[in-house]
Automatic annotation (TrEMBL):
The chain crosses the membrane at residues 92-113. This is DUF1515 family protein. Keywords: Membrane, Transmembrane, Transmembrane helix. It comes from the Bacteria. InterPro entries: DUF1515 (IPR010889). It comes from Stappia albiluteola.
């Protein structure tokens, strides 16, 4: 700044105007950058919100399906499973009883073998 008696010269004023104009241009550029950034952020947030809404809808649909499946399991499938379990228990009991009866028959045959042969052959073995 050239000062002549504390007064600014024309060249000083021109430089000041250029500097102020540059600052104004920079501020306008920053405002535009912020506006673009704000617009992009708003678009991004809108996309995120849309996706969250889609996920919420899908989650609700899945919960509804799972609820229906649970009802079907409780109403239709559980009684059948319980009945088959009872059949299995009865079958195991029957197999156990058959095993005991077979063991008893084997013991009887072994214990009375000589008498059985005698009755079948009509004579006592030597």
């Amino acid at each position: 700044m050239n000062k002549i008696g504390g007064v600014m010269t024309n060249s000083d004023l021109s430089q000041l105007h250029r500097d102020v104009g540059g600052l104004i241009a920079e501020v306008k550029g920053l405002r535009e950058d912020f506006a673009r950034s704000d617009h992009k952020s708003a678009e991004s947030r809108a996309i995120v919100h849309r996706r969250l809404n889609e996920l919420t809808e899908r989650t609700v649909a899945l919960e509804t399906k799972v609820s229906g499946i649970n009802v079907r399991i409780n109403d239709d499938i559980s009684p059948v499973v319980d009945e088959v379990s009872r059949w299995k228990q009865r079958g195991l009991g029957a197999l156990g009883m058959a095993g005991i009866a077979g063991s008893m028959l084997g013991a009887v045959v072994t214990g009375y073998w000589r008498e059985i042969v005698h009755v079948l052959l009509g004579k006592w073995p030597a």
